[in-house]
Design goal:
The structure is a homotrimer. By secondary structure, chain A is an alpha/beta fold. Chain A is built from twelve helices and nine strands.
């Protein structure tokens, strides 16, 4: 994390993030997750800590219905069994029909054929947001064959063009996770400099962020706040909590515990004081040169 | 938790609970769990901490056999894949045939059709105990359409009539989880005032209690202690450990860690000193008025 | 743990273990796990803490391909759904074809028929290593009907003959977990005295060791170090970290957290200073008499 690059920011998105955090805690958004077997418990605990109400409904015959009832939906492809693939397609259809915001997390696509084909079917349904590491975003855009599994082998900035392409093509907000997170709606690009390397040493560190995005998108419904703002707000809150947790951790085990505590205790004011974000109006490769 | 409502109790069920805790630790009951993907690891850790021996055998072709070998069985419907549904029916049949006590946890039934139908099939097999939040107990009794997912939208006392109805109809002990837990065999009603709100901020806080009930029911086999006593004892121990953990926690992450430590270290005497329970002989709506 | 039996050891395998730990951290081995639903999150966190790169790819149509790309593979039979069984056979075929080292963990075989038959099919593919408790190793060798689920009812030394038999029959290194771990390639036998009882109070304490073995076997590829050395090194590192964690734990909850921290922070020198291992040249029943 380049500490000097981004001083605590006064960009209006920070005030919006503070407001959204309060909204999440005032009226816990029912967040419907179809996620992978590795991180399902951690993801539910992250949502509970944030103040949202998780529901992991990944059963065929229930997912479509529930996506219409939920406030936000996450579809994560980490361990896409046939049952989960069918339930994911149901959930996407239910979310689209009901206007429920939904997040697609195309875990480890590119090299792995089953999930790659599944991700392509889902992205055609125009997810509200797409979250992945650079390799996954490049693969989803058709610009690379992906990394080795969940291992990110490209930097977020390297995926900036792919992110904008995906955003424009599918009407989605695209978030590329990495040391500096990049979030775009195809026109505007936010870069978030908060976070900590320990987040990559806990399984679900990325996957659970997708769930928090779904919660914040849900909380933003009926407000003037855009999906771009909601996804950026979720990223800011999540990565600020990670920084605070890392400051009192001895390793990945104690970090995961402190992270859940911080997700529950970090206030809107804490968030405002620590947020480091910039809006990049022009293509990122020029903006940073 | 209404601290003044229930002073530490001298009701005989407390001494029975202390004895059952010791029995669990002397001869770890083999506790067979068919439970949901979100909480399976936490549930196993809770059982290990308590002193029981967990075994998560949810495979068709093994569940019926294993339910006959186990000391107690839990069937939880949180993520009921087709394989788990078939394995659950097998396990119920095996438990009934062998006389193994078993617990049904009808997670999120009511609004979700697949699990609701499955729960109705299972409850016909007359589970030894049924555990749920008020919305789930109301839905299982056919008195409501359920809450929104796992979210409890009714209070335990509101489900008192439904609990007694279910208990009488199926010969089960019914436990309604909430700020004050209600446990009934259809005639007698116990109310347990121990516990802590942080238990609702950890995924599996309710589900793992169902597993502990199965362990205590197993330990009670061959003793003079009734299923009503065993289920009440499990609830008392679990909620007392939660109180002790909350006293040294900074949030939901550190609470979950301290809770496992307390489940392992809380002694029978600790339990006796902290238990707050009352027996309500008459319908609860009259007893508290 | 018999503290006096094994003083810190100067056997050359300790220096090899120190070197392998450094190799794992220098070039994180991509470790492909098909493991059970109870421990999948914990196993990924253990691998991340150690410094390896976990990937839980248990989908039919992806597993064979990925086993060829991975550095090491674990196939664990804890919750063998039909999908996982098919994916496991794919992964074994892919590993064999590519020469990727792989570990078989035959969880709870013997009494449970589906996994027992599945384990027999897999062991015919000649795994690089087999890890289990004594009951599982006896059952896999056809010398017993197994324990009651994952519960070890036999001591590692009681399984010494079964371990050598399996090792010789299938060309595998066989590791028997217990208070003193026993590891053999059919000729040489190592006994490791490190470890702590708390490791048996955390679900996945044994299962995640199989994953660390796969990581160390992966790191040993292309070196002069044998699979016997790699499996012994993994066991030494894992059990030394457990000892260090236990020294600052209040129970199973805080132990699991400290264990992940120690897996990340224990250095090669720490390992060398604490390792207690002996080589037993002759059959163990004679060596200890």
């Amino acid at each position: 994390m380049s500490d000097l690059l981004y001083p605590p920011s006064a960009h209006p998105v920070v005030a919006d993030a503070m407001r959204l955090l309060e909204l999440v805690r005032e009226a816990p958004p029912l967040t419907h997750c179809i996620t992978n077997a590795v991180v399902t418990g951690f993801t539910a605990n992250v949502l509970l800590a944030v103040g949202a109400a998780p529901a992991m409904v990944d059963i065929v015959g229930e997912s479509e219905l529930f996506a219409g009832v939920a406030t936000g939906v996450l579809i994560n492809l980490g361990t896409p069994t046939p049952e989960q693939r069918a339930a994911g397609l149901e959930a996407a259809a239910g979310a689209v029909a009901a206007g429920t915001p939904w997040v697609l997390d195309p875990v480890a696509i590119g090299a792995l054929p089953v999930r790659t084909e599944h991700a392509q079917r889902l992205v055609e349904q125009r997810p509200t947001a797409i979250r992945g590491n650079a390799s996954e975003i490049l693969a989803l855009a058709g610009l690379s064959a992906g990394g080795r599994g969940v291992d990110a082998t490209d930097s977020p900035d390297a995926a900036a063009d792919a992110a904008r392409l995906l955003a424009t093509r599918h009407g989605s907000v695209v978030a590329v996770s990495g040391p500096i997170d990049l979030i775009t709606d195809g026109e505007r690009v936010f870069r978030v400099a908060n976070g900590h390397e320990l987040l990559t040493r806990v399984t679900g560190g990325g996957c659970a962020l997708g769930a928090v995005m779904a919660a914040f998108l849900g909380a933003a419904r009926g407000t003037r706040l855009s999906p771009l703002t909601a996804v950026t707000a979720a990223t800011l809150f999540y990565t600020v909590a990670a920084e605070r947790a890392a400051a009192r951790s001895a390793g990945p085990g104690s970090f995961a515990v402190a992270f859940l505590d911080e997700l529950a205790s970090t206030t809107a004011d804490d968030l405002g004081a620590a947020a480091r974000v910039e809006l990049v109006a022009t293509p990122i490769v020029e903006a940073v040169s």
